[in-house]
Amino acid sequence: MGTPVKDVTIPDSALRSLILQKHCDYIASYGTKKDDYEYCITEYLRMSGMYWGLTVMDMMGQLDRMNKDEVIQFIQQCQHECGGIGASVGHDPHLLYTLSAVQILTLYDATDTINVDKVVDYVKNLQQDDGSFYGDKWGEVDTRFSFCAVACLALLKRLDAIDIEHAVEFVLTCMNFDGGFGCRPGSESHSGQIYCCVGMLAIVGQLHHINADLLGWWLCERQLPSGGLNGRPEKLPDVCYSWWVLASLKIIGKIHWIDKAKLTKFILACQDDETGGFADRPGDMVDPFHTLFGIAGLSLLGEDKIKPVNPVFCMPEEVIRGNGIQLELL
Amino acid sequence: MPGDKLLSKWHGRLKVKTTAEQQEAKRKEREKKLKLYNAGTKAAFKKRENGEYDEEGLKITGEILAVNPDFYTLWNFRKEIFVNFLQTRGTDEVQKIMENELYFLESCLKVNPKSYGTWHHRTFIMENMPKPDWDRELQLCNTFLDYDERNFHCWDYRRFVVMMAEVSLDDELGFTTQKITTNFSNYSSWHYRSKLLPMLHPDPTQPAWVQEDVILKGKKKQQISCIHASRKTKRITVLLTRPIMVGRGNSLILSIHGKSVAGQWKTPTGSSSFSVLWIKDLTESIPEEKEVSVSVTLIPDIDKDTQFSQGLQIDADQEEAWVMADFKSGSRFSNELSAATSSTLETELESIKELHGVEPDNKWVLLTMFSLMMAIDRTHSMYKLEIRECIDQLIKVDLKREAYYRDTKSKFILQSILETQDKNAREMSLKDEGLTALYHTEWMLLLTSIDLSNNALSTVKSLSNLRCLKCLCLDNNHLKDLDGLQHCHQLCELSVKINDLNSAEDLYILENNKCLVKINVYGNPLCRYKDHTTKIKKNIPSLLSIDDNKCTSAPS
Questions:
Q1: Higher-pLDDT residue of B507, B4
Q2: Which of B198, B461, B394, B424 is nearest to B326 (CA)?
């Protein structure tokens, strides 16, 4: 018998093909409704929101519809004296938004529009003696921040600024019996954290620490009968995990261990043909976050109407290669 | 960014059809809320700008954070207020205000138990409070884990409390037992036990890090497993048990006749990465017609005392020589078990087999049987048939993960063949084994000939480890490219009949394989072009025979 599987059923009416233009229109109009309630109360993550929107537009080939100058000016206003970048003007600096800003500037090939040396100092100063990273000066430690730090510096070609060996050691102390990783030493494995840790190890060229068979099995077990992927055992499927799990599998060379056709069907069913955009699950409300990860997931699954995505940085592969970054995946 | 489950707002919002009237009402309500929200935010930012760290600041930010706990800048402002209180107010007063903060946080967590910011703020308060009550915090964790036994934020906070309050690990193990009794399928509790048990019951014979590394992560002790030296290619190849990066944390010293030899170590693919195989091309020939002694020493930078060496002798008449370390049967691919552990596992296997009799199609029963048999039978000889049957049955009952099971089966087959084969063998047949993936190719380092025909391989990348390979048969696989083989510099004969090679260009990767004289691509899609042999010959000039036809002269 055992525990019943938590899952969703895909309705017969669900979309089966990609409505690309509608997604572009959804994202293009999202940033124009600046008085909208949802837009305002998510200001605390604006920088990441912009990264999601701009990246997905680039992957769909319509980045030119967005206002580049406005974006760059906004980022400049968000950089603080300490070098770190906040989510919005007047919001505190944090590694999460510093990475988002650097990702956006990389898309636009415009990292020289901010003070890069200060960003590097900011990131470097957040590293602790045990190799871990604080998210900001208040001292929260999380493997997500290890990824942010390393990804940010890799895009700025300044990885030499931090102690990589210690950074790797810390991430490895967060490895678990199932081959996965959690937030901190002792924390349970979680697909989002796994993506961060696997991505971090990929950037610094140390994927050999990963037990790819063990972790790959745990990751492919995330696929549910609906085809969707969950983030941890006994949880509901969610489009953003089609990204965290799938990208991790791609990095460790085991993407073929899931049923691609079923996952594609699940992701496509999360589109909303009235509004454009993707939701977490079929029938829910859409948002830019799930729209990026839906599109990025489909790219990894081989959808040719979308540009190939880099599984580590979640940015177009052409941008990463154009930036001279070559990662060795397993 | 990952982990932005700080997006609690954007998860699980069911889209409901609403009438125009309802929409208008909602719009108005939201407009009102937004006005208040914006005014509050403005007031909070203003106070902070003016350096007003006071109760009013707590009140204003509190109202906003209660509805939007992910507004991290406001938590930071609150922290600044508390830092200020700690410096300017009496201990009792601060204690009181911080106790109130804990109540406030509790109410926030009830509304949104998965907010990173709220949990971190609680950590901050507890770390800075004059008289923290850790028992109460443990109770709070119990309450929240009763409400949601998988809330990883709360589990993490619990581990922080346990550390600060020095709660005994036995008590914590008891807590997980109780959780598991209520719900057996509680992954979070099982995970916690995986951390607690090794701490509670350390293996007295092994230091803790060894247990974690060896048992949980399957790491092997570092060792030089093989050294191969060739007079003909002027090349030394070293195989280790654990991957290293020469120059980064480790030095690898090659000596010939006791004299250290300069030159760069390379990985088989030439990439700058961690590897178990390291190759050095000598600038000078190994002296002919006399005995030559070669030795390799591995020196880890951090612990120079743990260095070790391995040596070999090339006799006067030998073109090549090698030394392969002795390894206990079954020790290369699995961990050693004590007799007691083995007997426990055998008893387990007996009971799970009974369960299998009742529920023959249960995936988890099959998986458990498989894992147990793999662990007990380290040479993969005892349960050879049963393990194969087990995997075949798993493919039937869990078709979604067919590729995983097939790869696992391939790994098992390769391990059992490598276990039984003579360690110095130069030839190997893996024909008709149903292989979908290649594993452990570093242990095929010495092979000069391998038959991999009639399998289901779609990549041969890892054959780059076969440094001595001369003869390779890959007929009847699913290969779309030959990536990997460009590194097999000794390759003379290659047969890739009936694969999925689409154009002659797929073979150009072999243009620098100077020893390649014979190739057979019969039955590939590329043969539909009549000029394919001409093209191949032109790009791989060393070839003397293509598809069993002699190519006599090089085309201009």
A1: B507
A2: B424
Q: Do B1 and A99 touch (CB under 8 A)?
A: yes
CB pairs under 8 A between A and B: 168
Domains and CATH numbers, chain B: 31-167 (1.25.40.120), 224-324 (2.60.40.1130), 339-411 (1.25.40), 421-550 (3.80.10.10)
* SS3 track for B437-490: CCCCHHHHCCCCEEECCCCCCCCCHHHHHCCCCCEEECCCCCCCCCCCHHHCCC
CA atoms of A34 and A28, how far apart (whole Å): 13
- Burial zone of B337 (CB within 10 Å; 0-12 exposed, 13-18 middle, 19+ buried): middle
Average pLDDT of chain A is: 96
Q: In this structure, which long-range contacts are made by residues B170-177, counting pairs with CB atoms below 8 Å and at least 24 apart in sequence? A: B170/B200, B172/B196, B173/B197, B173/B200, B175/B142
Looking at residue B286, the DSSP 8-state letter turns out to be P
Spatial separation of the C-alpha atoms in residues A54 and A66, rounded to whole Å: 7
From A95, which residue of chain B is nearest by alpha-carbon distance? Answer: B1
**Per-residue pLDDT, A1:** 42
Quote the CA–CA distance of B122 and B110 in Å, as a whole number: 13
| For chain A, domain boundaries | 20-323
Can you give the pTM of this predicted structure?
Answer: 0.94
Q: Which of residues 228-247 of B touch A (CB under 8 A)?
A: 243
Lookup: tokens for A156 = 């700025």
DSSP state of A142: -
Q: Does B80 lie at the interface with A, CB-CB under 8 angstroms? A: no
Structure tokens at B507: 């073979």
Write the burial class of residue B170 (CB in 10 Å: 0-12 exposed, 13-18 middle, 19+ buried).
Answer: exposed
Residue B310 pairs with which residues in a beta bridge?
A: B296
- Cα separation, B449 vs B494, whole angstroms: 10
Q: Do B3 and A196 touch (CB under 8 A)?
A: yes
Q: Which residues contact A279 (CB under 8 A, 6 or more apart)?
A: A239, A270, A272, A285, A286, A287, A290, B13, B15
| Cα–Cα distance for residue pair B392/B403, rounded to 1 Å | 12
pLDDT band at A66 (very low <50, low <70, confident <90, very high): very high
Tokens (6 digits) for B211:
């247990």
Please, are residues B455 and B477 in contact by the beta-carbon 8 Å criterion? yes
Q: Rounded distance, CA A292 to CA A27, Å? A: 10
Per-residue confidence band for B5, with pLDDT thresholds at 50, 70 and 90: very low
Instruction: Please identify which residue in the block is written with the tokens 């590897």.
Output: B275
Among the partner residues B68, B70, B188, nearest to A188 by beta-carbon distance: B188
Which DSSP category does B14 fall into? B
Is the CATH code 1.50.10.20 the one for domain A20-323? yes
- Is ipTM strictly over 0.90? yes
State the amino acid at position A313 in one-letter form.
Answer: F
CB contact under 8 A, B401 and A258: yes
Q: Residue B424 and residue B416: Cα distance in Å, rounded?
A: 16
Gap between the Cα atoms of A126 and A163, Å rounded: 11
| Integer-rounded Cα radius of gyration of chain A | 19
Q: Is B42 on the interface with A (CB under 8 A)?
A: no
Distance CA B247, CA B22 (A): 68
